[in-house]
Write a structure and sequence with these properties.
Layout (H helix, E strand, L loop, with lengths): L1 H8 L4 H8 L2 H4 L10 H13 L3 E6 L7 H21 L3 E5 L10 H17 L4 E3 L4 H15 L5 E6 L5 H10 L3 E5 L14 H16 L5 E4 L3 H13 L7 E6 L4 H9 L3 E8 L4 H10 L1 H11 L3
Parallel strand pairs: 1-2, 1-8, 2-3, 3-4, 4-5, 5-6, 6-7, 7-8
Length: 303
């Protein structure tokens, strides 16, 4: 019930102004968001690189309703790709399809991703298409399939909570596509998503094994230590090298776990968000893990 409430609140962006009024961005949100500017994001990546982690930069924003907004968001990403190369930091970029115009026109979204992918290819870099709510899944995948047939430096996200995900994984692997596997952070009807955590976890474990056996470099995105340990054990049993996949964690969450994985010789990529549109992302982080909510409340009332 708490998770459902928080996910509902994540769509009430008017609350962002209230939170800013009380200084929440400075005291709490900065734990999960690197800052509001590209320079903030790049500085966070540089620090992570110095600690042995790689990264993916995400310019926060979603659900744009005007083509001009989608083009503007794309320009931020193009600048980010150029700056990544200039600064020599080890990171790629991730972008939400609705931020790049999916709800305006699928053709616009595909065109914007194409511009990003081609710019990244100049620098031997990579673009990840994020996955959003189930109402976007099919359109996002169809765009990805078309792009992957033309470009190798594009990947996709799959959510283990969705019942369709195993079939989607099989289709993506036929194209040699790179997947970031996560549990999923959206409220979905039980007809299309597993309603209980053990089912989501079981799906995650099954899909992880499929990905690791594929011979393609994938990202296993979870903070769940039990699933991380199961991933490590499966890889060891099947003689899968540590450098043939990576663990992915979110910026500001389970930093000690990230450090330990790096120490143990695993590749670790940190998802680094930046930008002014932090509210929906922040609220989903609270919904995902009760400890994040307790941290927020403790610091909020100290404001």
């Amino acid at each position: 019930m708490l998770r459902a409430i928080l996910l509902f609140l994540s769509k009430q962006e008017a609350i962002q102004g209230f939170m800013k009024k009380f200084g929440v961005t400075r005291k709490v949100v900065d734990r999960f968001v690197s800052g509001e500017t590209l320079e903030d994001g790049l500085n966070a990546v540089k620090k992570l690189n110095s600690e042995g982690a790689i990264a993916t930069l995400d310019h926060l924003g979603e659900e744009v309703s005007e083509a001009a907004e989608a083009v503007a968001a794309t320009e931020v990403y193009l600048d980010a790709i150029d700056r990544i190369n200039q600064k020599g930091v080890d990171t790629n970029v991730s972008a939400k399809p609705t931020q790049l115009g999916l709800k305006v026109a699928t053709e616009l979204c595909e065109e914007n991703f194409t511009r990003m992918i081609e710019r990244a290819a100049k620098y031997n870099n990579f673009v990840r298409m994020d996955m959003e709510g189930s109402d976007c899944t099919e359109d996002t995948l169809q765009i990805f399939y078309r792009l992957r047939k033309k470009y190798e430096n594009v990947g996709i996200v799959i959510q283990s909570m969705l019942r369709r995900s195993e079939e989607d994984v099989d289709q993506i692997l036929k194209l040699g596509g790179r997947i970031r596997l996560c549990k999923g952070a959206y409220k979905e009807p039980r007809e299309i998503a597993f309603p209980k955590r053990p089912e989501v976890d079981e799906s995650f474990e099954k899909l992880t094994e499929k990905l690791l056996k594929s011979g393609v470099y994938h990202g296993i995105a979870t903070h769940d230590e039990r699933l991380i340990e199961k991933t490590k054990q499966f890889a060891q049993r099947n003689s899968i090298a540590k450098d043939s996949f990576e663990f992915q964690l979110l910026y500001g969450i389970r930093t000690e776990l990230a450090r330990q994985l790096i120490k143990d010789g695993y590749n670790v990529r940190i998802y680094v968000p930046f930008g002014g549109q932090w509210y929906p992302y922040f609220m989903r982080r609270l919904a995902e893990r009760p400890a994040n909510l307790f941290f927020f409340l403790k610091n909020f009332f100290r404001a």
